[in-house]
Amino acid sequence: QVQLVQSRGGLVQAGGSLRLSCAASGGVFSINSMGWYRQGPGKQRELVATITSGGITNYADSVKGRFTISRDNAKNSVYLQMNGLKPEDTAVYYCNAVSIHSRNYWGQGTQVTVSS
What we know:
Number of helices: 0
Helix content: under 10%
Shape: globular
Distance between the termini: 40 Å
Number of strands: 11
Radius of gyration: 13 Å
């Protein structure tokens, strides 16, 4: 079993920055890719960014050029640096890990609110 613990989110003004972190424990050797998803008010959960164990990244079009995902395999952690935040980035952000057996694990979620 993999456990994911996320850092706190926060309230930030439009144009500001915020960094999220997520630490994995438990069956970390089974983790393949890690990533971030978000769920805005009244919306479905959507992909934000993913990163493989080899460092290959993938971003949603809406965050390209503003968000950066990174990973520290030694610390079993994944990070999301969010710059140029917009009100539409307001959501609950979830850390995700996918095992080599294609099993999904989720963090507890953290609220990010961007004020205009």
